[in-house]
Design goal:
CATH architecture: 4-Layer Sandwich
Helix content: 10-25%
Number of helices: 5
Strand content: 25-35%
Distance between the termini: 57 Å
Radius of gyration: 19 Å
CATH superfamily: Carbon-nitrogen hydrolase
Shape: globular
Number of domains: 1
Order of helices and strands: EHEHEEEEEEEHEEHEEEEEEH
Oligomer: single chain
CATH class: Alpha Beta
Strand order of the largest sheet: 5-4-3-2-1-17
Length: 300
């Protein structure tokens, strides 16, 4: 099969976890009724973005994989005949928690688990307090429609991650996301951040000749301090292997957007832009270093 349909669920996270779960299941039902073969939900969609502060009580939100949420979505995937990219706050063991996702197949089984590898620790995004870095590496999963790479949010900024899953055969990268503007930022800063976020992912699509899918949440979530919080900018989108945005959601509304994925486009692009062919794999050993000090090729 050369072409198939994917759905991006851009949603608001409410304070009530059960409400978020019910809404996500309804969105999967809607997406499948529109013909989607693969449905992707946003990062940590079952709760509000609790990482705006450090609170040990928030570990209560985590659950095991498999667990109650995956059981619900496995049933839904089987009922609707779709793949679901389902991000979760995973409790692996007492004191070990991950920002994870599961890929659930139409048979109602878990096809794979990915644990977020790059963990931020920035103002309003205190994720290192909550999440152990992933230890399953960068993987891609077979769906029967295509091989998909599954990365999460902060992974979006790292070309190494997109390159590795592409080299492993991925045709599409899905990036479930929770990103937005803090209330203390000015309009210029907001615009620059949004454009950088779009640009870096379009660049991943171009440099790897691959489809890229970013699925963000939307809406304002307070931090606990009066008037402060994050306004999640939505803007979920799909771009093709030449970086062309083929569909995009608004920055304000809950939406389900759909895109047709045509693997012939990927083949055509890579024939004309054969970046993988021309890689100098003999010259890249230094990329594994944190920083290159005292490079002998650098003039004083």
């Amino acid at each position: 099969m050369n072409s198939f349909k994917i759905a991006l669920v851009q949603s608001v996270a409410h304070k009530n976890r059960e409400e978020n779960l019910k809404q996500a299941i309804l969105n999967v039902e809607k997406a499948s009724s529109l013909g989607a073969n693969i449905v992707c939900l946003p990062e940590l969609f079952l709760t509000r973005y609790f990482c705006q502060s450090e609170d040990t009580g928030c570990f209560d939100f985590a659950e095991s994989i498999p667990g109650p949420a995956t059981n619900r979505f496995c049933g839904e995937a089987r009922k609707r005949g779709v793949f679901i990219v389902c991000p979760l706050f995973e409790k692996r063991a007492s004191g070990i928690y991950h920002n994870s996702l599961v890929l659930i197949n139409p048979a109602g089984k878990i096809s794979g688990i990915y644990r977020k590898m790059h963990i931020p620790d920035d103002p309003g995004y205190f994720e290192k307090f909550y999440f152990t870095p992933g230890d399953k590496g960068f993987s891609c999963f077979e769906t029967g429609f295509a091989k998909i790479g599954t990365l999460i949010c902060w992974d979006q900024w790292y070309p190494e991650a997109s390159r590795i899953v592409s080299l492993k055969g991925a045709d599409i990268i899905f990036y479930p996301t929770a990103i937005g503007w803090r209330t203390d930022e000015n309009e210029l800063s907001k615009n620059n951040q949004l454009e950088a976020w779009k640009t870096v992912q379009r660049a991943h699509a171009i440099s790897n000749g691959i489809y890229v899918v970013a699925v963000n949440r939307v809406g304002f979530e307070e931090s606990g301090k009066s008037g402060e919080g994050i306004d999640f900018w939505g803007s979920s989108f799909v771009c093709d292997p030449q970086g062309v945005v083929v569909c995009e959601a608004s920055d304000k509304r809950e939406e389900i957007i759909l895109a047709d994925i045509d693997l012939r486009k990927l083949e055509e692009t890579r024939r004309n832009w054969p970046f993988f062919r021309d890689r100098r794999i003999d010259a890249y050993s230094e990329i594994s270093q944190r920083f290159i000090d005292n490079d002998p090729g650098t003039r004083n």
